[in-house]
Amino acid sequence: MRSMQTVIALAIIILTIFGIADSGYVSYELFNQVIPPCGQGFDCGTVLTSKYAYIGPFSVANSGFVYYLTAFVVSILNFLDVDIKKIFSIQHSKTLKRLQTIDLLLLLTTIGFIFSLYLVFIMGVVIQSWCTYCLFSALTSVVLFSTVQYYHSKYSLHSSFLAKGLTLRIINWLYGVIAKPIFFLFDPELIHNRLISTGSFLGNFSVLKFKVRWLFQFKHPVLTKEIDGLQFSNPVGLSAGFDYNGDLTQILPDVGFGFHTIGTVTFGRYDGNPKPRLGRFPNSKALLVNKGLKSIGARAMIQKLSQLELTIPTGISIGSTNTHYDSDKDQLMDIIKCFRVFEASSLKHAYYELNISCPNTFGGESFTYPDRLEVLLTALDTLKISRSVYVKMPIDQSEKETLLLLKVADKHNVQGLIIGNLTKDRENPAVLPADKAVWKTKKGNVSGKPTFDRSNKIISLAKKNYGTRFTIIGTGGIFTAKDAQAKIDRGADLVQLITGMVFEGPSAIGLINLGLADKLLDKLSK
Q1: Residue 52's CB: how many other CB atoms inside 10 A?
Q2: pTM for the full model?
Q3: Span 172-453+473-490+497-525: which CATH code?
Q4: Region 118-128: what's the mean pLDDT?
């Protein structure tokens, strides 16, 4: 063990000894039918003789003694770096195959921490008396839990396949039964704005970032990828269209994203299409989107982001300002000007997304025609752009039309494809009839599950016809690790999501990464 790791592991052992001494002393005194002296201002007798001080025939002190003794044994095994799977002969168990001693210790101390909070509540609210030894035990439990939590996050080799998986699934369940039903009672854009504000706030404080990281982030070296000269800690990114004003750069790495696309950013400011701009189709697992490239504008974005540190690969999605143009050339030049100001800036962004496929703009998807895309990419070539450019593809075109666009991209300075954007097909079979009826009365186009199959088909088409020519980022309908794996199996190098996070909560990112890592490790072990 490294010195600091050794010190923390020893501290965990010492904390369990404190707990054993405290609970052991109280258990001994109670066994002899003696109430231990409590000190002025405390009333141990009332607490230790109440009905809440017993679990069946056993006192809570007895339970605490067993808990701390168990934690002591496990902490010794952790200090000695013993493989707990061999002790219990579970090395062939699928569920426990990545179990580490520190995982078990984290689970154990989490239970102890929660139970300690419960006991403090009982003393303070129900009994309204305090026991010195009980408070000392609660404090020991809290410090022990926090120390184990820190140790686990810093030194756990497999980033807690068991403990982290359990934590993420509990959070996922709580989001589904509590948070999402409440969120879905309110206007989607109102909730979106509140979540953006909350994420921005959390990103300003290291202690809050640490808590978010512990709750949501899953890391494992097997997920690391180097693509187009960029290092990705994992393959799961946030698509453009959620953080369109770059408010979440400081918190998204802690949530667990491996990369992040801001925008779409336009050269001029645009406050968004008329409201409502967001809707939900819960039964179709989809969102109705009509933001229309809402943007604070390129120069304001550069000024804002230049004050921030970008710790994961962060891309800038660029499109034309959503307004009327007198000519095609004017629209093209608007995009060129946007690229120019970003290229001239000192911003440390990692890549560009060229958004040619947003269907919610004034002029529609004007660059999804081969001849117009040819003119745009030719103009971009003259800029000698210093970062990778990924074209965000439409998904409603035919196979023939898609191949014509790919043929154009192949001739130019385009490193990758993002497949793909919203679907505008109102006959899409994945949109349920009741949602189609609502869609006919509202403006906007659909994300989520209705885009899943179409995105997959285009990923396969691009991979089949162009092999490794393009980096492929698969997006559309990713809710689970199985969804992400389906796109990777078809040829995607990376994946992105938004709607899956809205429906499944922020724990979805960690669960997807955990599932992908589990799959990769199984593959490597064969």
Answers
A1: 14
A2: 0.77
A3: 3.20.20.70
A4: 88
